[in-house]
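thread: overnight batch results

M.L. [08:02]
morning all. the overnight job finished for the chain we discussed friday. pasting input first so we're all looking at the same thing
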Amino acid sequence: MSNQIELSFKNKAVKMWLILMVPNVFVQICLTQFTEVPRIIPACLPAISLLIFFSWFYWYKRKEQSVA
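M.L. [08:03]
and the structure it wrote out:
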């Protein structure tokens, strides 16, 4: 019994991670390079996105287990 992770677009977790993190990185780079906002704001963006992702992942797995 092996629990391998499928890293393809069929996997909803991979899609959700990409939907959250790719735009986040773009926004973070733009804020850092082109604005005068304090450095802590762009630094917090990945943490917020990861919190959203793991919250969604928790609820997704919980829903998946209740259906199965």
